[in-house]
Amino acid sequence: MIRTDILIIGGGFSGVIMALEARRHGFEDIVILEKASDLGGTWRENAYPGVACDIPCHLYTLADHPKPNWRRRYAAGVDIWDYLREVARSEHLYPVARFERKFTGAAWDAETRLWRVETAEGKVFQSRVLVSAMGPLHQPRIPDLPGLDTFKGTCFHSAEWDPETQISSRDVAVIGTGASAAQLVPHVARDAARLTVYQRTAPWVLPLFNGAIPRWLRRLYGRWPWLMRLDRALTFWLQEMTHRVFRGDPTAVSLARRIARRHMRCGLRDPALQKRLTPDYQIGCKRILLSNDWYPALKRSNVEVVTGPIKSVEADKIIGTDGIARPVEVLILATGFDATGALAHLPFQGRDGLKLSDHWSERPSAYLGAAAAGFPNLFFVLGPNTALGHNSILLMAEAQAEHVVRVLATMRDRQIDVVEPKPERQKAHDDMVQGRLAKTVWQTGGCTSWYKDADGRNPIIWPGTVREFRRLTEQSGLQDYRTVPRLGPRPGADAA
Ligand code: NAP
Fold first, then answer.
1. Half-sphere exposure (CA, 13 Å, Cβ side) for 222?
2. Atom 20, ligand 1: which residue's CA is nearest?
């Protein structure tokens, strides 16, 4: 049994952000539990060709760890992973990480006032504070297609890319046309003998202004970091302005649609193909894709786009609703992630045996996406309703980590042992979030998406701007939590 003060589950950006923030405030006894053999989260897992971030790099960095030498405005996945590992190395986080420890469940022990955390490897940890930093996009969604289990070729999900897989000169199929597909398809199309892209719903696609950052500018960034901060601030405000599209501002929506339509016309000359690739829902309802090579890839002579649902899969072919059987040797499932399911089934047992999955059976919700009533000293980074469609998610994780650590520091100062959010504060926050969401394109735009469950409920997206979220997290503090004072030494504290 390993005893620690703060246990963080997940070694991706949100876990690292939480650990750095805790350290900054003098919390040294930290463990990061990571299922894999390295830190990196989504950027370690997603290794498909073309993986990159669609948020400009100077904004997709930690506020206190600017990086002057990003080579392109939109960084490649591997460069982001390197960056995260470099931050972790320079901040000495590797020694506190426990790798190959797959979290399987945690239960609150009211007597010791500690969380008991278990891993698949049979290890047990005890911690005073538990932070779930598992990210929303880690559970691949494998489609329920008739006959998929009879397929005899090579088949894998985009997040489980095998670099050994031979693509060149083979018949390849990609199912899905989301952000992952948009990045990998242009690469696969160049190598494959034939590529069939199965599109169930057409995406909205905008141009990507991804220039190389010249060496002289990188040098200037290194010499005068304020230039980087200026770039970051300008980018932040530009991204914040795009939020207008999502709250349905007619001018912004019309402008975005016009740019997207023009982008498609420039990329695809064939009117019939344009028609098939035109979305039938409002722009922004699903994640807007940024790509300059998506349409050019789809019009290549070795690429075919098959629209509509898939009828079935056989040993070496896929049959579309058009009834045509197309041969496949390599089948790539770019079918996304079960974000709502992963959140709804988090295995935490709180006060009085309350299971989080029962508490969240209707829809996951949390105070500031960071804490839930009935679950003492448990916090979430990127918990319910904190994902964004318009800006860098790292800003949300930073705002939450700052809030959580401020609460922890106040607990320390005031000799408080246990906190959980006041139910009325949690409800008021959730009512506000859902009330605002109902008026956004994510709910009214006429689409399904990974933000929503099968009943259309949305436990994923934050409906406002980052600035609004920051204001809420900054204003909130211990006054919004129920507290239990420390009565002498914590029971069982000497048993480490
Ligand atoms: P996604 O956006 O959920 O897209 C999944 C795709 O698979 C959709 O086109 C979906 O069609 C299709 N699909 C799912 N089940 C299917 C089935 N049974 N038959 C046919 N088609 C099926 O997933 P993703 O592309 O992996 O992206 C997920 C999120 O990851 C993104 O929204 C983004 O937040 C993040 N991401 C970010 C970046 C980045 O640059 N920052 C890059 C990649 C991913 P329907 O639309 O009809 O459901």
1. 10
2. 200
CA distance 206 to 25: 41
335 Cβ inside 6 Å of ligand 1 = yes
Rg of the chain taking only CA atoms, in angstroms: 23
> Both 287 and 392 in a single domain?
no
- Ligand 1 pocket check for 465: Cβ under 6 Å: no
Domain boundary among 333, 351, 379: 333
Instruction: State how far the Cα of 451 lies from the Cα of 431, in Å rounded to an integer.
Output: 18
Q: Residue 393 C-alpha to ligand 1 middle, in angstroms? A: 17
Using alpha carbons, list the distances in angstroms from residue 467 to 237, 470, 474: 10, 5, 10
Mutate to test the pocket of ligand 1, among 81, 139, 180, 382 (most ligand atoms within 8 A of CB): 180
Question: Quick one: DSSP state of residue 415?
Answer: T
pTM here is: 0.96
How many domains are contained in the chain? 2
C-alpha of residue 53 to centroid of ligand 1, in Å: 15
pLDDT (tens digit, 9 = 90+) per residue, 171-212? Answer: 999 999 999 999 999 999 999 999 999 999 999 999 999 999
Contact 298, 305 (CB under 8 A): yes
Q: Please work out whether the CB of residue 450 comes within 6 Å of at least one atom of ligand 1.
A: yes
Cross-strand partners of 325: 319
Q: Do residues 377 and 115 lie in contact, with contact meaning Cβ atoms separated by under 8 Å?
A: yes
- Measure 141 CA to ligand 1 centroid, in angstroms: 9
Asked whether residue 412 falls in the same domain as residue 470, the answer is yes
Residue nearest to ligand 1 atom 46, measured at CA? 201
Whether the predicted pLDDT of 489 surpasses 70? no
